[in-house]
Each structure stands twice: as C-alpha cells, then as structure tokens.
Amino acid sequence: MCSLGETQMKPSIYQQRNLLILTAARSSYFTHEGLFPSLLSTHFFFIEEQARLPLAETLLPIIENQNNKRLLEKAIKVQREWERLELFQSSWTLFRQMGISPLDDQQFDDFSQLEFSNLLEGVKIPADAKLSLFWAGLADFLTNSWSILEEFCLTITPNGLQQEYEGPETDNSSVPHVTPLVSWDDMKLEHHFMNILIRLRAGWDKLADNVLAQYFGVSLPNKWNKRLDKLERTISSKLNERQRMFWTNWMQNARSVAEKDGLKDMRDFELHKIAFRARETLGKATSSYKLDDLDKLVLFEHLRLEESFLLVLAMIRTG
C-alpha cells in the first residue's frame, strides 16, 4: 500500500464538481429529454452470474441516493436465483414481484449513480498508482458516457417521426406515383447511431488507458489486444480472489471489442475505410444491415461498456 495524502485519495474540487454534474445528469436530465429510464438501469447482461451479487454488494455503500440504496439493499437480501434477463425489465426478483420500474426521477437500479469521492475509502492503493490522472480519467470516461446517452436522446426524435410513405394525396390516376429514394429521418437516425458507435469505442480506450492503467500505474502500447495482454501480465498477479473474478469478467468483455465485425471493425470502417451503410439509407437493399440491426448493436455495446465500467469499480473497491 502506498502512502498518499488525503487530497489524492479523493478527487480535486474541480474533479469532484464534474463528477457530481455527470452523476446528476443520469437522475435529473436524461429521462426528461425522453430517454427511457430503464436504459439507465444496470441489467447485468455482461456481468457473469457469480459476479452479480458481489458487485452489487461492493458498490452498494457508495450509492448516492439513500432511498435507492435502501431499495437495493432489500433486493440484494432476497435475491436467490437470477431470472432470465430481459431488456427493460428489472434484473432483481424483488422489483419484478413488486411490479415496480425505474421512474424519471429515480432510477433505483442504476449502479452508476455513485458517490465517486468515496470510491477509494478503505482501499489498498497500488504503489504505482497515479491518482490525480486516475480521477481525471474517471471524469473523462463519464463525460464520454454523457455524450453517448445524449446521442441516444437524439435518436428518439427521428425514430419517432418515421412514417410509412403513403404517396401523394390525389384521386387523379394520371398523376405518376412518387416513391422517395430515402427518408431523411432514417439518415439522421443512422448518423446518431454511428456517433454512438464511435463514442463506445472511445469509451473502451478511456477505460483501459485513463482509468485502469492510471490506477495501477501501467504504461500501455497502442494496439488494443496488446494493451489487454500487458494489463493481464501486469495486473492479474496483483489481484486477490474476489478482484480476479471481476477482472476475468472485464477482460472477457474487453476482448470482444476486437472480434470480427464487432465494435472495433465497425468504428474502423466508419473512420478509416469505405463505411458500410444501412439498406434503408445508402446501403445495398440485399446485403446491407438494417437500421434495426445497428440499433441493437449500439444498445447492447452500450450496456457492455457501462457494466464493464462497474466491474472495474468493483475490482478497485475490493482491493
């Protein structure tokens, strides 16, 4: 354990201000912009079953909202077997039985609404930790998450405006039937999905380079898989058994980024190659993906990134 001043154990006043703003956005901004409250929930899709309760128990003490903390404490106590996880349904048996769902002003099952200033209380800090950069990286990751959620808000309007084209309103059969080549709302929707995709890939870089690497004092190479290999070599042996459970889960999620046709490939084609486009916009009608496919991709990759962030926090808290 390294000897650190109290000021380093907590974020600076400037960093604390930003962390408070970014946490408040989840509870008091996004749902009022039309975001479905359950999109902010922790669904546990990408957290292994054996790690779910330990993660919840680890982060519970630093849940910011006291009412949320009490509700989650009850849910944790009665949780036994996990029911089949479904999008926009609570993962907690208690909340399903009670028939309650997150509200606009209270996303009670969102484990990202934390008192981040208390994250390191009682934690053994690695000797090589660069805590000032760690706190900066934490705020930067959450800023990127804010941008992702803001883009999701922007998808609501074009998605909601989509209507089936019914042709010109006329009884004159001699007037040619006009079929539009493209819906501008579809174009806007794809634009926002692509922005989310790029931000998601950036989020993984920020999580690895600016949060994990700074906390453990590791210098990382440029290539994604090489970065993961070095993190594995450097960090894994320093972890206790409980931490290693979270770490193994995180590494599995992180490896998926570079899988064929995954997040990395999609981002690389968008930024550096001839990008793919949906069949509803500029893609080929027979071979291109559908906008619905892109919607599902960015949604579940968003959940993967959010839950992987929580795995990192839980790993730190159990040190």
Question: How would you portray this structure in words?
Answer:
It is a single chain. The protein is mainly α. The protein has one domain (10-160, 183-317). Helices cover 56% and strands 0% of the residues. The chain has helices spanning 6-9, 13-28, 49-59, 66-78, 93-98, 131-161, 184-216, 224-235, 241-255, 263-272, 291-317. It is globular, with a radius of gyration of 22 Å. Mean pLDDT is 87; it is low at 1-7 and 158-170.
Overall geometry comes to globular
User: By helix and strand content, what is the structural category?
Assistant: mainly alpha
Order of helices and strands: HHHHHHHHHHH
Regions with pLDDT < 50 over 5+ consecutive residues? 1-7, 158-170
Helix content: 55-70%
Q: Quick check: average pLDDT? A: 87
The total of beta strands comes to: 0
Number of helices: 11
Please tell me the total number of domains: 1
Rounded to an integer in angstroms, the radius of gyration calculated over CA atoms is: 22 Å
Described by strand count, sense and barrel closure, the largest sheet is: none
Per DSSP, what share of the residues sits in E-state strands of 2 or more residues?
under 5%
Distance between the first and last residues' Cα: 10 Å
Question: Keywords, please?
Answer:
globular, 319 residues, mainly alpha
Put the structure in a nutshell.
This protein is mainly alpha-helical.
